[in-house]
Design a protein that fits this description.
The protein has 759 residues and is an all-beta fold. It contains one helix and 72 strands.
Length: 759
């Protein structure tokens, strides 16, 4: 197949047409699982209704709900857990154990729980009966290439060479090793299994340790041998995929995770994980970690809302040491332990504090914008950080803060702050750190306060794709890059791609009045792109930022009567998402906060003079107790909304679209439904027993050939809108969905765009 190359700025985009490898397709959750089949997890059978397992670390009491002691459970035994009430874990029969340091509670993966549901007699997932063509998807290759330096750490080798270790976002993520003496890149090492990496630390031997996401993989890089080692996945048998931070000593790597807010211990010598333990029930983030090796304490910053734990890992006891004044923060982003002082950076306030471990109180608060702090400079007895682009020095002995007047490039802050010695003056310790996503870094002399700005040329990396949508005429397919952004316009006729840079990750897009409107992440930004200009030079125009109202994402945008309506997902609010009404004539807007109480608004579609919407129970890292809502309102008065009762309970109502005959179609978790606004009747078809996600995991469209097509939990399906018979085109490897003018389907998987031919 002919390959088409097109040069755009520094990016070389290519399109190669090949068949999708068969191994990327797996079965759906229930295929291959027989009714009554036993499902095993962690060495024993996983029973229907079981939610976890408890291991007894020390003899503990078995009690009733009112506290009556039944007997003593012996150390070393284990029991299935079926429910919980407060801090009590239910072992069945109305008996409980306390959730404290005497026990270790663990939970099975979502896949295992789904398998039990499939094997149980209550499984009610319909069977696919609609024939599909059997055609193979065409791989159009990576579409978004970005230079995005995400995180960094500086260190030395045994010969006195200084390096800046930089994480390059891509698929997979890579580690770039930059020689600080020459500014040369000595090597780029793919971090297989990982699409990003945030946790970096260096041990006393100079070895760099890296914690990857989304598979929870640990890596190490030895600068003396220039070899990268993959130590495997350390989050197995947990629901976590993301390692947020690590700290390394001579023997162990300690790390903290999302979204289960756990802490793990990995043994460097045996190459085995020794434990993974929960921090606090109900939290989703264990964001930062520090270690006091002498006292055998771990300090763990968690959220949301923020807390700070002092964890004595000799007896597994935990104590909260965070004052109430900081508990409205989302989480503690970074920590550094220096002597008897624990430095903590709070998010999102851009405040930091110095906690005295002797007096057990905070003794200083200051403003900070860097991701963290340097270690202590023994020459000056100062640690360093940045705020508003300036390097500041904090003297731990006197408590004074010094403005060094050393300024970083405009609109940048330090991503990392580490001390090294350069060959030009090996007796002088200098501070260095990454400052942006483009490979820019600084070298600062703390004695002279002189600063030098440098930049290395990082190679563009293919990145995971994210939002996918078509132009109104369906000639162009638009593909957004995950995390590092970028928006590529793929011409479905000419088979060429052009990338527009300067656009961050998008959650939604909509065309109105000849313009493109996009919901940009982070900070829930509504932006406008003028379609009259050539694609490459276009510059998005900011219309609204909703972060000050606690919103972070705009999962849905639609339009009616020259008004844009958008729904949001909140992250820093105590309320639910808001509904935005933006008047395209006057450029004025209104917001309706907490529109669906304690829920997010994730789907909107206008039909017959109304706007219909769907919500998610997820908001602010919390779950609303009631199910997701299906609602509608008149554009002239969104305050008068009406709730429409669904015939099933779900956590998310996603991807509402206009179907044949004026019907509304959508996905309620693993069930596809249609609703007739005239007869007020529903039709439903359950495809999957369970799905994952917080604000989207489905994409539907009404195809040119008259069928409903959709992606749901990585599956691509086809459905007859009259009978609701369906068939799986793909059972794995398909996310998002759109079509071209010929009705061909486009979906994404990892960094590649795929086309499924309908004609």
């Amino acid at each position: 197949m002919k390959k088409v190359y097109m040069l755009f700025l520094s990016f070389i985009l290519f399109i190669s047409v090949v068949q999708l490898p068969k191994q990327t397709f797996a079965t759906d959750p229930c295929e291959g699982i027989k009714p009554g089949q036993k499902i095993y997890w962690d060495g024993s059978e996983l029973k229907p209704g079981q939610i976890g397992k408890v291991m007894i670390l020390k003899d503990t009491k078995l009690i009733t709900l009112d506290g009556k002691e039944i007997r003593v459970l012996k150390k070393g035994s284990s029991y299935r857990i079926y429910n919980f009430k407060g801090n009590l874990l239910g072992v069945g029969g109305g008996y409980y154990v306390k959730r404290d340091q005497k026990i270790f509670y663990k939970t099975p993966s979502k896949a295992k729980l789904a398998a039990v549901v499939c094997a149980s007699a209550n499984t009610a997932v319909s069977k696919p009966t609609l024939p599909v063509s059997g055609k193979k998807p065409v791989n159009l290759g990576p579409q978004v290439f970005n230079i995005s330096t995400m995180a960094a750490k500086a260190g030395m080798d045994a010969n006195g060479n200084a390096y800046l270790y930089v994480i390059l976002h891509g698929t997979p993520t890579s580690l770039a090793v930059v020689d600080l003496n020459t500014n040369d890149i000595l090597g780029v090492y793919p971090l297989t299994d990982s699409t990003s990496a945030w946790g970096l630390d260096i041990d006393k031997e100079g070895t760099l340790w890296v914690a990857g996401t989304n598979s929870g993989t640990i890596y190490s890089y030895n600068p003396n041998t220039r070899k990268l080692n993959n130590h495997g996945r350390v989050l197995v048998n947990s629901n976590d995929t993301s390692i947020q931070d690590i700290v390394v000593n001579d023997q162990f790597v300690y790390g903290v995770t999302a979204y289960g807010a756990n802490v793990f211990k990995y043994n460097k010598k045996t190459n085995k994980r020794e434990f993974i333990l929960p921090t606090v029930k109900g939290k989703q983030y264990a964001k930062s970690i520090a270690e006091d090796q002498k006292k055998q304490y771990l300090y763990i910053g968690i959220g949301s809302k923020a807390d700070l734990l002092q964890w004595n890992f000799t007896n597994n006891s935990k104590t909260s040491i965070l004052p109430d004044k900081y508990k409205n923060e989302t989480y503690i982003e970074k920590m550094k332990l220096i002597d008897n002082y624990l430095l903590t950076k709070f998010y999102p306030s851009k405040k930091a504090g110095v906690y005295d471990l002797v007096s057990k109180k905070y003794i200083k608060e200051f403003n900070i914008a860097s991701r963290g702090f340097s270690t202590i400079n023994k020459q000056t007895n100062e640690f360093y950080y940045t705020y508003e682009g300036v390097i500041y020095a904090y003297n731990l002995k006197t408590g004074t803060i010094r403005n060094t007047n050393a300024r970083l490039p405009e609109r940048t802050e330090a991503f990392s702050l580490d001390f090294v010695q350069l060959k030009s003056n090996p007796a002088q310790t200098v501070l260095t750190g990454l400052v942006d996503n483009k490979g820019t870094y600084f070298i600062f002399n703390p004695i002279t306060n002189e600063i030098t700005i440098k930049k290395f040329e990082a190679p563009p990396q293919p990145v995971n794709l994210y939002l996918l949508f078509s132009s109104p005429d369906k000639k162009y397919i638009y593909i957004n890059g995950y995390m590092s952004g970028g928006l590529t316009q793929y011409d479905s006729v000419e088979k060429t791609s052009i990338q527009l840079n300067g656009i961050s990750q998008l959650e939604s897009a909509h065309f109105a009045n000849g313009k493109m409107y996009i919901g940009s992440y982070p900070k829930a930004k509504l932006m406008e792109i003028n379609n009259e200009q050539p694609w490459g030079p276009r510059v998005p125009k900011m219309l609204v930022k909703l972060d000050k109202l606690g919103q972070e994402r705009i999962p849905t945008i639609t339009s009616i009567n020259n008004h844009l309506f958008a729904g949001t997902y909140p992250q820093y609010s105590t309320k639910g998402g808001l509904l935005l009404d933006y008047d395209l004539t006057t450029n004025q807007y209104k917001v309706y906060e907490d529109y669906i109480h304690n829920q997010s608004i994730i789907s909107l579609v206008p039909i017959n003079g109304y706007v219909y919407g769907g919500s998610s129970i997820h908001a602010n890292y919390q779950k609303a107790p009631e199910g997701a809502k299906f609602f509608r309102f008149k554009p002239s008065d969104p305050t008068k909304k009406g709730l429409i009762s669904l015939p099933l309970k779900s956590t998310m109502i996603m991807s509402l679209i206009k179907g044949p005959g004026g019907t509304i179609w959508g996905a309620a978790d693993g069930t596809i439904f249609s609703y007739n606004p005239t007869t007020k009747k529903f039709k439903t078809k359950k495809l999957l027993s369970s799905i994952s996600g917080r604000y989207s995991n489905a994409r539907l469209l009404f195809g040119k050939d008259g069928y409903i097509y959709g992606t749901l939990e990585d599956c691509l399906f086809k459905m007859d809108p009259n009978t609701m018979e369906y068939g799986f085109i793909l059972k794995k490897g398909a996310k998002e969905l759109t079509e071209d003018s010929n009705g061909n389907l486009y979906f994404r998987y990892l960094s590649n765009l795929y086309m499924y031919p309908i004609q």
